[in-house]
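pinging the channel bc i need a second pair of eyes. not urgent but kinda urgent?? the chain im working w is below, pasted from the shared doc
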Amino acid sequence: MILGIGTDLANIERIERTLERFGDRFRNRVFTETEQRKAERRKDVAGTYAKRWAAKEACSKALGTGLRMGISWRDMAVTNLPTGQPAMHVTGWAADRLKEMTPEGYEAIIHVTLTDDHPWAQAFVVIEARKLS
């Protein structure tokens, strides 16, 4: 069953200007160390950050809260599976919210997909509840 769906569209050039203006202050407020290492290794640093920004926004929408009610940017983190597929991990208040919205006898699975076509970065997040065996 679907528990939540979220999407977001981010402007890569806006993220690039924010990185130039605020640097580490922005990076450290929004992105985990793992996300920062990934982005800083990429040719398109701003595009990588923009996709992760969009994923966090989309995840907060799928959780039904947006970025309010105690959810922190860093409570949602995008990593990659060995196949390259993006994965969303939640901690803190976001994990509490996910647990709260997951029916008993089910486990929550967060699906995320990212794409970009300069100057846009886009993310979709679907939170699925799967019945436990």
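so The CA atoms of residues 38 and 48 lie 8 Å apart. and The chain is about 40% helix and 35% strand. — does that match what u expected or am i reading it wrong
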